[in-house]
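ugh ok fine here u go
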Amino acid sequence: MRFLSPRVRWRWVVVVCGVAVLCAIPGIVAALPVPGSPITAAALRARILASGRLPYEGYVESTANFGLPSLPDLSDVSKLLDGTTEQYAWYRSPAHWRADTLGTAAENDVYQVCHHTYLWYQAGNLLTRVAGSQPVRLPRAADLLPPALAVRLLRLAAPADHLSRLPSLRIAGVDAAGLRLVPVSPITTVGAIEVWADPATGLPVAVKIYPRGASQPVLASSFLQFSYHRPALTTVIPHPAPGVDQATARLSSLNGILDGGGHPWPPELGGLRLTATPAALDGVAFYGSGFARLALLPLPERTGPQLVRAATSAGAGAVTLPGGTGVLVQTPLLTVLLASSQRFGGLTFLFAGPVTAAALEHAAGDLLTLIARAP
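structure:
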């Protein structure tokens, strides 16, 4: 048996204690009180909206519970809005960034390179270049990154919406100041939006969205690791390996689900005023303001009935509308209504937005009534 001298034993005690302290440092830091910030709610909102050019990188976890039904060809969206999404982001500037979604079997990446977006689907060994801007597209995991999500939500807010401060929290090493936004419109399904951001820079590190009357968020997105490190340009540009399939898509093909006929939309539907529409989306209309806003899309002759059948088989409820019928899909936050006219071969329109079912039915009823009265 070997005996250690008291001096040697003390050396080992010191080493073990030192290692224990090092291991405990993250927990100790996290447990320390978070200093409050004197910044006002309005100033914090302004700083968040101005943070879009700040570089960063980090690991984000997002959890969503929208309760969407499973629809054909939309399984990726269903998983995104009902489940947990993990991704790592490298953000160099608004023109150069990358977000990698980490899955159990494969990885899906999004690259923004100037005016082009690259989509990498590892499972299909396919890199797709999307040329030009995309005013309308399906949601992607990168949309849930706290910096992008917070800015998008705060820009939607109406001037009358209520802003207040929340207690500061330490998130991914950042002593973040809290901001709470409560929409005032009675027809929106959005109850509150909470954002935590670095008060010095305004960069958001966590976002929560609550439906009206709910105590739990329907969407929570937060950094688990974060730094202000500016990634190298080569990191945010795709470098496809030999043998990777490559394709190019343009707005005209991505926008094919829209009718695009330049319809003369009514100036008001359901008490909501028609708002400006991007020039590239002549076939889409937007009504309302703030979070009391809905989108109206005319669907092609074949697409409309297909979506109605798919929504009905997924459990959507049937509604009776003046001059037509509809099927309604309701979630805690998003409401979708497919309205079909009884005239002109059965036109179908898609109404969607973070508004109540009554608001969508009112708007759809007004539109179908106008169509029914048309000569």
